[in-house]
Amino acid sequence: MVRSVPLLFVILGITALLLLYIPVLVMIAFSFNAGKLSSVWSGFSVKWYGALLENEALLAALAKSLFIAGMAATLSTIFGILIATAFVRFGRFRARLLLSALASAPLVIPEVVMGLSMLLLFIGMEKLTGWPSGRGLDTIIIAHATFGMCFAAVVIQARLRQFDRSLEEAASDLGARQPFIFFSVTLPLIAPAILSAWLLTFTLSFDDLVIASFVSGPGSSTLPIVIFSKVRLGVTPEINAIATLMIVIIGVGVTAGALLMGRKKP
Fold this sequence. Notes:
mainly alpha; MetI-like fold; 12 helices; 76% helix
């Protein structure tokens, strides 16, 4: 009876994983379907991947998504470094509780609420200052960077807490001063965490649909938005093919981030 309980948990865990990944594997398999129907297997073919090269709408949306994700991930990582450094290095300060609440809020706020609030913010800013003029790539980047920086801060903060401060003290004893110590000693040693945070926020931005649908405008539709609009008319193998490519991109990013975070500190 003692051994049956862990075995039951293992069986339930495997069942849950199968329920999660079997539909994904089926979608990937049907992206190589020779026929146009996604529910009937007509033979193996890679023609739908070739058709993607001729679909200007999907390619343009993919390019926009990659650009937005790259910019948002960079901004998120920069702000994440600043937030993590403030929490770890400056101890308890007067605004620490407020900053902690602000930095953690995007982790728990529903994406619908986040997207709606960002939309109202951009509308209010446009009325007061004239910027942004409508919704476009810039508003999506700002929105993605806003909710992505808290994830970056969590990742970088975990690495900073394990950082050996004696290395910075040694540099200080040798005559080095801030910010030289931070950029020449601290930053290179926490680089794996920084890159991991960048990859994580890149993945979150590239995969986002809800927030982007609120803050995007004509001509700025990301790849998830384009896919969602096409799925309403029916799933085709071409959609399965582009979704498979998205899974590959996201999988590479998540795996690389996990490997980097798994590295032991020097």
